[in-house]
Amino acid sequence: MEFRYLGHSGLKISEVTYGNWLTHGSQLENDQARSCVRAALEAGITTFDTADVYANTQAETVLGEALKDERRESLEIMTKVFGPIGPKGHNDLGLSRKHIMEAAHGSLKRLQTDYIDVYQAHRYDYETPLEETMQAFADLVRAGKVLYVGVSEWTVDQLRAAHGLARDLGFQLISNQPEYSMLWRVIEAEVVPASQELGISQVVWSPIAQGVLTGKYQPGEQPPEGSRATDEKGGANSIKRWMGEDVLTRVQQLKPVAAEAGLSMAALAVAWVLQNANVATAIIGASRPEQVHDNVQAAGVRLSPEILARIDEILDPVIERDPARTLERSPKTREA
């Protein structure tokens, strides 16, 4: 495993992060989830990402239990706040001071830790003044309950505004967590250049495009039994945008490229996002320990310009690059 600095800070995190969206507390039994966490630790992963909204707080609980016997100082635990949790009442979501403070204390209990390494605003809250949100984060930092602050799926304008407020309040905004993969490149035109200027790193999710870039989904065929595309608890809905014939056909053409690089299709996809210097880490998920061991083969890999060019040539017609797509990620109203 190799490590990178997160933003303009002294915090180093593993190039590959283990995340538990759509798995812990949902798709996987707890023993299976713990086996995946153990595989991540054995592979040298030290950074773990979750969110209170995942499985309505259960994902944090499972992760906290899996990590409770590890040396805390050797780990970087990241979680997020925004989405509706608990009974989903009128203050059970968003980035108000009330919700941030209550959510942070809940996450600390579930994760069985005294502090969160990186606390992230899961989405932008249009109904709460940004000043209120950033003041709440600043107070958590000063209290020692949060070490660093990040955001997820924020636009360039939102990043600039938050970065300025954080500076004025005496703390750093050091990360943004966007979707990023060979197929989804909407951050490249605007978010990445601005982030480089501001000292913000990308902590990218879905580098394998919900499993599509593994090549296991064949055009014209039914999805494999037990795969994410067959999961009715949320997985099937999240992956359906990538299940078109054109996308699946072009992904199959990446197999000889992966073979030339000496990587599995999954590891090639993870390695690809890590070629971007503004990416600090790629978040992987897993339903089996062997998937973790496969994905971490991407750490430290440097893909040749020729391989990168071939990937672009194969996928170009199906790549999403429109930076405006980031704006769609945050709900304009805060409704439970």
TrEMBL record:
Q: Does the keyword Secreted apply?
A: no
Q: Does the keyword Disulfide bond apply?
A: no
Highest taxon of the lineage: Bacteria
Q: Where is the NADP-dependent oxidoreductase domain?
A: 16-315
Q: Which InterPro entries match?
A: AKR (IPR020471), K_chnl_volt-dep_bsu_KCNAB-rel (IPR005399), NAD(P)_OxRdtase_dom_sf (IPR036812), NADP_OxRdtase_dom (IPR023210)
Stretch list, region Disordered:
215-236
**Which keywords belong to this entry?**
NADP, Oxidoreductase
Question: Which family does the similarity line name?
Answer: Belongs to the shaker potassium channel beta subunit family.
What protein name is recorded for this chain?
Aryl-alcohol dehydrogenase-like predicted oxidoreductase
Organism in which the protein naturally occurs: Microlunatus panaciterrae
